[in-house]
Design brief:
Layout lengths: L1 E4 L6 H12 L7 H7 L3 E7 L2 E11 L4 E9 L8 H15 L4 E7 L3 H9 L3 E6 L9 E7 L3
Parallel strand pairs: 4-5
Antiparallel strand pairs: 1-2, 2-3, 3-4, 5-7, 6-7
The chain binds coenzyme A.
Length: 147
């Protein structure tokens, strides 16, 4: 696998396709624009000539916190360590730029995602109930990077 910065417009269609396959109808057609506007750090995972994963990182400037806005591996390529490699890369990037913490939010039903982050050293800190005004509860996970 190779992790590369998002290259537009070349990567655009494949990234939207990947997003659709993970998030289905919740995918906003402007998803790439959203990620770029809210941070600018978007990476894609290339494997066997295809894009099989991505991650987007934004930053809360005043308190030096990196925020994972999105991270996913194509279903067909999950459980092979690609996610771990991508997360390691993102965490290293956040640490290298001097951020104090890295955080991510995901729905409490996403047991696999929560386990994935916790295995890497993230700690579940707080649950926001009915986050979107519906039944979805969100958990905030974080990992300390630098003092
Ligand atoms: C969460 C997500 C990114 C993990 O990606 P992944 O590539 O499957 O992650 P990994 O392969 O590193 O680890 C997943 C499992 O595979 C196992 N694994 C890793 N390499 C393996 C290998 N070579 N052989 C067998 N199992 C392996 C890991 O031990 C882990 O097992 P566990 O869940 O029992 O602990 C992926 O499931 C995903 O895209 N989910 C949907 C989107 C999402 O929830 N994103 C996170 C919230 S923002």
């Amino acid at each position: 696998m190779i992790i590369k910065p998002l290259h537009l417009p070349t990567d655009s269609n494949e990234l939207v396709r990947l997003h659709l396959s993970i998030n289905g109808e919740d995918t906003d057609e402007n998803v790439i624009q959203f990620y770029l506007e809210y941070g600018g750090d978007v990476w894609v995972v290339h494997f066997e000539g295809k894009i099989i994963g991505f991650s987007a990182l934004s930053k809360c400037l005043w308190n030096k916190i990196s925020i994972i806005e999105g991270m996913a591996i194509d279903k067909k390529f999950q459980n092979r360590g690609f996610g771990k490699n991508l997360l390691d890369f993102v965490v290293k990037h956040a640490k290298h730029r001097g951020d104090r913490f890295i955080t991510v939010q995901t729905a409490t039903w996403n047991k696999k995602g929560i386990k994935f982050y916790e295995r890497e050293g993230f700690v579940s800190k707080i649950v926001f109930e009915k986050y979107f005004g519906n039944e979805i509860d969100m958990v905030w996970l974080e990992m300390k990077l630098n003092e």
